[in-house]
């Protein structure tokens, strides 16, 4: 992973949804360098938020990446401008090898740069280097999630978005994945991550937003959210 530039995404008055059904309502948030986590109950609009930011859904409102406006509903332009999304469910090509899956993550870049990024991905994810020729569909859930993250890094993003990366993983793999996320952020790639694993996500993050029914209901430093009554009662089962 190359040193990137600690990007800042500023979102103002964002609305988005499906066929006239508005899920995200007039949302404003700041994704600063480091790791920002988005929490909330099922159906709160977390995935919809990431899709709208990644250009996969039409939206209203303003999204600025390092001060420059990103277009609505233009995923290719968003990738070119430095956004990468690891969607829920990983969406790997199961009949292709690890190497082939990673190469597909670099489809927009020249072949030489792609080869350099592939070599770097194998340095950063040694577990994948050992399994470069293995078919992605035969790997464990945690390994597949690592392929998905490494593939997203192949585009050399300024801002990496992850939708529930720990879903279905054993606790040890969750820890390993979150430590990879921290390392990515420490190398200057800003991270925005949706998580259901509230305690571990807030322990790994710098800041967080809590969504309910398409709106932000709490936000702040991760440590403060972890200690807040609202998060403790609603998500951590602490009275
Ligand atoms: N393709 C779609 N067409 C119509 N409605 C959708 C579509 N995708 C999601 N929705 C609706 O939008 C709302 C928000 O869904 P979203 O997936 O963004 O929530 P979420 O917070 O990510 O939930 P979860 O934690 O369950 O993944 C839900 O009411 C959902 O039914």
UniProtKB/TrEMBL annotation:
PANTHER family: HIGH-AFFINITY BRANCHED-CHAIN AMINO ACID TRANSPORT ATP-BINDING PROTEIN LIVF. One of its GO terms (biological process) is L-amino acid transport. Gene3D superfamilies: P-loop containing nucleotide triphosphate hydrolases. This is ABC transporter ATP-binding protein. Keywords: Amino-acid transport, ATP-binding, Cell membrane, Membrane, Nucleotide-binding, Transport. It comes from the Bacteria. Belongs to the ABC transporter superfamily. The keyword Cell membrane applies. Residues 9-238 form the ABC transporter domain. InterPro entries: AAA+_ATPase, ABC_transporter-like_ATP-bd, ABC_transporter-like_CS, BCAA_Transport_ATP-bd_LivF, P-loop_NTPase. GO terms for molecular function: ATP binding; ATP hydrolysis activity; branched-chain amino acid transmembrane transporter activity.
């Amino acid at each position: 992973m190359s040193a990137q530039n600690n990007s800042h995404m500023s979102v103002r008055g964002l609305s988005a949804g499906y066929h006239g059904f508005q899920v995200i309502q007039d949302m404003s948030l700041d994704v600063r360098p480091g790791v920002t986590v988005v929490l909330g109950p099922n159906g709160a609009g977390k995935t919809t938020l990431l899709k709208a930011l990644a250009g996969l859904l039409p939206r209203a409102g303003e999204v600025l990446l390092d001060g420059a406006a990103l277009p609505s509903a233009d995923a290719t332009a968003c990738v070119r401008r430095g956004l990468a999304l690891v969607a829920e469910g990983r969406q790997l090509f199961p009949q292709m090898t690890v190497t082939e899956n990673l190469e597909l993550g670099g489809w927009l870049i020249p072949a030489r740069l792609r080869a350099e990024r592939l070599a770097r991905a194998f340095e950063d994810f040694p577990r994948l280097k050992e399994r470069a020729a293995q078919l992605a569909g035969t790997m464990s859930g945690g390994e597949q999630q690592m392929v998905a993250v490494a593939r997203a890094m192949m585009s050399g993003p300024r801002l990496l978005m992850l939708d529930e990366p720990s879903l279905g993983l054993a606790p040890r793999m969750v820890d390993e994945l979150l430590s990879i996320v921290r390392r990515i952020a420490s190398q200057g790639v800003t991270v925005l991550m949706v998580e259901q694993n509230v305690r571990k996500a807030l322990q790994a993050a710098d800041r967080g937003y809590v969504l309910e029914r398409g709106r932000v209901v709490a936000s702040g430093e991760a440590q403060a959210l972890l200690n807040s009554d609202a998060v403790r009662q609603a998500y951590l089962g602490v009275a």
